[in-house]
């Protein structure tokens, strides 16, 4: 079986690497008459990748029998706590996904969070919450309007629709003192949120832990 080599400059995405792997496997299974001429190889690949095979099917085929890769940029903001009880902000990317069938076709899935409570909330324009701990280790997903958080180190972050905050600055934190943050609504529109409280231990000195 012949091998196919590709020289690629610049950054190569996970999907591109997987598609090239599939292409190499397909070419290795072709009769010799199709494998020798470069023009035939290019023609075959063009026909193959312009077919109705979905990108999700290509990803699933390329990922079989190998370690799964995470999404390239599943972003969230971590309001984290240092051992001294001060709070900070870390822009992070989630890891630990599996590429597997979940609804119908394969997709990136991250599981393992035990939900304790699910809260829908709307905060009025101008609302401000003085420095306070969060009630639970939780995710806060902004679905409308915008709000902001301010940590005890003086950093302020605005969260808009689609942004995800993870925070574990609960009162019963293992930090040296109860950690807190300031929050409020930004702009003249209400801010709507989905709060997902999870059964997870609060940590210190572990930014970007998801």
Automatic annotation (TrEMBL):
It comes from the Eukaryota. Residues 169-189 are annotated as: Disordered. InterPro entries: RmlC-like_jellyroll, RmlC_Cupin_sf. Gene3D superfamilies: Jelly Rolls (2.60.120.10). This is Cupin 2 conserved barrel domain-containing protein.
